[in-house]
């Protein structure tokens, strides 16, 4: 098991992260060996140590020794790497037992629920904010429950090829980054997250969504499968426009049927480009629009926008040209796409 962590001396690290009371989930197994990424540092923390920490209450000395700087997770406010106190590893039991803290802005983050909340508003007591309807819709418990129980299957009527084929198509694009860390952004109920995690292709899979209820659904499906509970798999709540990951830290980013739901696709793709490593691959799918068949497409509304200013629509649909332009404007290269009726799978790569 590869652990993407750097152990820091306890004396240099903050000591106020809370120790987690008990472990609800089984301890992680060592898992199958994964291909190592070229040039990636050797293991700094042993999987055996993680298993020992998970099995026994920590002594004071062990607690101090397990304060680490994370290589991937970063503060959503200032993008500094988060300090972590607890057992290492990108897996649900270890993350549930860990506290995370930004040493720059002192903000703490925990997995109070089954997911690690890395939104800017994590822990706020009075402040709350409404996102656009296309984000808020998916926070509903009912929509989250129905999503994988009929809602998603409906997409096939617009040309989506179905989960198995979509997964294989994405895996083809991700071949150059096999063995790396994959981020499944806007994962919904985790239908692709589970496939990526089970494939054994990646050293870790991080499922990310803004919807608390989608992440709960995600966990409901994961816990039905012991191999997934013990896999190198994490659930993170975050806003796509403010990704809580260090720049150049992630190898692969998948965004299934999501870009049309994002509040600002340009901020989101810029963030995706920031967190990808050089050579990292982004793959997205969405519904294509054309001015002829969609009265609410960005292109169709452009003349209206020139007259009345911003026009609010429920979803943002794009043409092939717009998606390519957006990826390129965020610095991604080697753009390619596959189209079937309104379905498009598109991909771009962070230059070396
Ligand atoms: C149509 S679902 C796609 C789910 C899954 N990826 C798939 O392929 O079916 C869109 C997802 O985007 C998420 N989403 C919407 N706004 C978001 C935001 N601002 N940040 C992160 N995720 C967001 C929703 O919560 C929802 O789970």
UniProtKB/TrEMBL annotation:
Record-linked Pfam families: Methyltransf_11
Matches recorded under InterPro entries: Methyltransf_11, SAM-dependent_MTases_sf
Localisation: Plastid, Chloroplast, Plastoglobule
CDD domains in alphabetical order: AdoMet_MTases
Main location: plastid
Gene Ontology molecular function: any one: S-adenosylmethionine-dependent methyltransferase activity
Low complexity bias (residue ranges): 8-33
BP GO terms, sorted: methylation
Keyword RNA-binding: no
Cellular component, GO, one term: plastoglobule
Residues in Methyltransferase type domain copies: 183-283
Keyword Plastid: yes
Region (Disordered): 1-39
Keywords, sorted A to Z: Chloroplast, Methyltransferase, Plastid, Transferase, Transit peptide
Matching PANTHER family: METHYLTRANSFERASE, OS06G0646000 PROTEIN
Protein name in the entry: Methyltransferase type 11 domain-containing protein
Organism in which the protein naturally occurs: Sorghum bicolor
């Amino acid at each position: 098991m590869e652990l993407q962590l750097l152990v820091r001396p306890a004396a240099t690290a903050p000591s106020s992260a809370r120790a987690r009371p008990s472990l609800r989930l089984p301890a992680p197994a060592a898992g199958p060996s994964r291909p190592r990424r070229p040039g990636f540092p050797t293991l700094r923390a042993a999987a055996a140590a993680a298993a020992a920490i998970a099995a026994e209450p920590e002594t004071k000395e062990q607690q101090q020794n397990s304060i680490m700087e994370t290589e991937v997770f970063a503060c959503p406010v200032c993008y500094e790497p988060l300090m972590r106190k607890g057992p290492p590893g990108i897996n649900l039991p270890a993350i549930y037992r860990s506290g995370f803290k930004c040493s720059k802005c002192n903000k703490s983050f925990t997995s109070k629920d089954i997911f690690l909340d890395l939104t800017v508003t994590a822990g706020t007591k009075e402040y709350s904010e409404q996102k656009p309807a296309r984000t808020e819709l998916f926070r509903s418990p009912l929509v989250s429950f129905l999503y994988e129980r009929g809602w998603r299957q409906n997409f096939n009527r617009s040309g989506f090829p179905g989960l198995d084929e979509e997964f294989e198509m994405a895996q083809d694009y991700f071949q150059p980054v096999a063995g790396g860390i994959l981020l499944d952004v806007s994962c919904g109920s985790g239908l692709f997250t589970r496939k990526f995690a089970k494939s054994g292709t990646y050293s870790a899979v991080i499922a990310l969504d803004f919807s608390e209820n989608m992440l709960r659904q995600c966990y409901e499906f994961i816990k039905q499968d012991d191999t997934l509970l013990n896999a190198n798999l994490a659930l993170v709540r975050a806003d796509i426009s403010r990704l809580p990951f260090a720049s150049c830290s992630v190898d692969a980013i998948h965004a299934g049927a999501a870009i049309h739901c994002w509040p600002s696709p340009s901020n989101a793709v810029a963030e995706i480009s920031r967190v990808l490593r050089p050579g990292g691959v982004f793959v997205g799918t969405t519904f294509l629009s054309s001015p002829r068949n969609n009265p609410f497409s960005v292109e169709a509304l452009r003349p209206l926008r020139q007259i009345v200013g911003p026009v609010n629509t429920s979803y943002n649909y794009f043409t092939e040209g717009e998606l390519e332009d957006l990826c390129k404007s965020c610095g991604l290269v080697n753009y390619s796409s596959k189209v079937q009726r309104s379905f498009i799978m598109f991909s771009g790569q962070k230059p070396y």
